[in-house]
Amino acid sequence: MIKLNRPGYVTFFSFASVLVLVEALSRFVSPSLPVDPGKWPRIEIAQKLDQMRTYVNDREEVDVVFAGSSMVAGGFDPLEFNTVTGLKAYNAAFAGSTMKSTALWVRDVVEPLMEPEVVVVGVQTRELSDTGSKNDIMNEKFVSSPGYKESTSSVGSQLAGSLERISYFLRYRRAFRTPSVLFAADGKEALQNTRVRQEIGPWGTRIVEPGEYRATDKFLSGLRDKTFEDLEMGGEEYESLVNLAADLEERDVRLVVVSMSVTDDYWATHEDPEGAKDEYHRLLDRLVDGSGVTVIDAEDAFSTTSVFRDPVHLDVAGRAAFSEMLALRWDSITDPEPSRYTVACEVEGSISCGLSPADAIASN
Prior knowledge:
- This protein is an alpha/beta fold and about 375 residues long.
- It has helices spanning about 5-30, 45-55, 70-75, 80-85, 100-115, 135-145, 145-150, 155-165, 170-175, 180, 190-195, 215-225, 235-250, 265, 275-290, 315-330, 330-335; strands at about 65, 90, 120-125, 200, 205, 255-260, 295, 310, 315, 340-345, 350-355.
- It has a single domain (about 35-145, about 185-355), classed as Rossmann fold.
- About 50% of the residues lie in helices and about 10% in strands.
- α7 packs across α8 and α8 crosses α9 (about 170-175).
- The protein starts with 5 loop residues before the first helix and ends in a 7-residue tail after the last strand.
- The relative contact order is 0.13.
């Protein structure tokens, strides 16, 4: 047993008092803080992981998980799906995800935590691009993030993650190193690191108001210059999807892949739109034939831009109609045999979508 003299007691209790004070201050300011922006490359990831852990701790069973980029995060309405099917679905998608980071997120974090029966992954040419600089940057940030390392690395790293869930100071320690950024009201860095662009509601739902369709030059040039210049597909990004299908099959989890709805403005950002479509569709057909997954082609489901927020994101009414269709045809979609389907939606008056079997993913 260690015996402390009087100076030792003073030092020990002074140190303990400082820790208690720091923890108390961290808890006091925590309501005004985001989830630690230094732990994951997107606040949305940390928020959704905290929410998923809450559901697991409350013994909520999850049947279906939606995963992918912001196209999925804003394109699937789990509340609509849950209401129609009576199942429980969680939207675990986050902005900027590539197929490589989506596969890691699902395989190493989401599926072991939620244990769903089905995983629905949304893709487009962007997610399968091997030459986009933005894709490479995002994937590197994800792989090197403390959150991902703690989820997949040593027992010591996992213990650190557990302690962070108990101690508010440990949880926010990376953010507290730069308080001027953390509490800044303005500034690009503060906006990127500490503010949440979309409010996250129950079951990972993005809470957004209906908006008008916008296809700005900045948005389109970003896709053209940083994603689709010298586009190549069929490499690491596609193989990540193939490997995810194999990993989920070993875990007895069904994989459904949705080719996400886009507008003509999206295709116009490709150097060779028709060539990109043909190659993309060949990859999807190869996925069904080689991996035994079900693929739903929804890229041309809507003939109008009125149901979109921008060239790659459905608006509130569009996502609700699409999610309702998935729910109504869920038994067919999850039939034991792998299948190909196409989606067509009518937008006259109320929006309604239908699902039809297809021999292949059609090129246009």
